[in-house]
Each structure stands twice: as structure tokens, then as C-alpha cells.
Amino acid sequence: MRNGKRKQTNMKYDKYLFHCSMLPLLTTKSRVKGELSETCKTELTKIWIESEYGRARDVTTKFTEKGIICEQDSIDLLNKKLASSFVKNTELLKNDYITGTPDIRDTAIWDIKTSWDLLSYVQSDFDKAKKTYYYQLLGYMALVGAKSGHIAYCLVDTPDSFIRDELYRFSFQHDPESAEYKEKEQEIIKNMKFGDIPEEKRVKIFDFEFDQKAIDEVYEKVKEWRKFLNDLHL
């Protein structure tokens, strides 16, 4: 108490909505019971810095860029496999805790993951999908009221611009007219184009069910996340 007035607690983030894509990192388990994990604290701090000072770390990589650029190609490939007619969802959804835009909004939720190359596609499996993306999918299911959701890994051709970038870097050390350069060009094209693999083998689908208890636990965590944001300062 000072001058008879009660100190006001910062409440700026009391209604902050967390994007579903953030949930996998925010929900990581802490080594210390009852505390937020260090990964969670780091992600919350990033949110706070961007909100307070307009500064965000650029986390764009060639892997995420391909995912963004080739999303429609992946949806088209999924439609061919399922003989479906899914279209990209663009509606931003929200409730009192979370917000997000699921890739495909149907009777179930579909989240599209575009694999970078054949290795990453082959290595994708149910356990990795659950560990890495389940909470994101869970959030989307909660926003829509869906009882089930699917994560679809799709292997589609990498845009030619990526191939040109790889060759441009290689050209610093090798003459574009050299045999080494020509060999590298064919190697890169083969590693980034997948037309020789049947389309039905280039989609993996992993199915998940909605879990009310799990999303209720997320909503309880939101209160802690908001408090952490309110308490942050330079």
C-alpha cells in the first residue's frame, strides 16, 4: 500500500488467446513438478517480446517454407488418395482460451504436414506425429467440436526455386559448366522430385480421437501461461 492506493496487478494478458500451433511446445512437461517447463517459458517469453516490443525471431526455414508453398499440392494429393474434395480452410476460429485455423475443416479435422524429402517422409510415424502435433490437432478439434482428427504427411515435389537456390550455393565452388555441377544438378533434382513414386504411397494418415480431459488440462494451463505473461518485465 502506498498513498492509500492498492498496487494494480498487470492484467493485459488475462484474455490472451494462444494459437493451436503453440500448444505442443507450451504443454511440454517440466522436470520440476508444479512449474512450467523451460521450453514453455521460452515460448511465452517470445510471445511477450513480440507483443510488447514488436520483435520476433525469424524461425522460417526451407522446411517450413516448402510446407507453406506446397500446402495446396499436398491437399490435392490427399484428395486423390481419398477420392475426396477437401478445400483449404481459411477461417480463423477461437474460444476463450485458444485460436487457430485448421488446414481442413470437415466432419473431422485434418492437419497437413508436407514432408521435406523422402527420408523425413519415411521416418514419420504415429508416435512422432502424436508427440509433435497432437496438442495442435486437439486444439483444432476443440475449436470445431470435432470428435476426431487426422494428421496427413504428404510427399510432393519441391518447387524449382529451392533447386535453383541449392545450385546457386554450389556454383560458388564449381563452374556451372563443369561435370561436377551437372552431376550435382541431377542429384538435387532426384532428391527433390518424387514423380517416380506412386501417388498413393506418398500420403500417410494418422488418426486421433478428441480427449476432453486433455483439452481441459490445456485450459487450466492457460491461466498459468497468462499469469506468466502478466508478470514478465525487462
From TrEMBL:
Q: Which Gene3D superfamilies match?
A: 3.90.320.10
InterPro entries tied to this protein: PDDEXK-like_dom_sf, Restrct_endonuc-II-like
Report which superkingdom the organism of origin falls in.
Bacteria
What is this protein identified as? PD-(D/E)XK endonuclease-like domain-containing protein
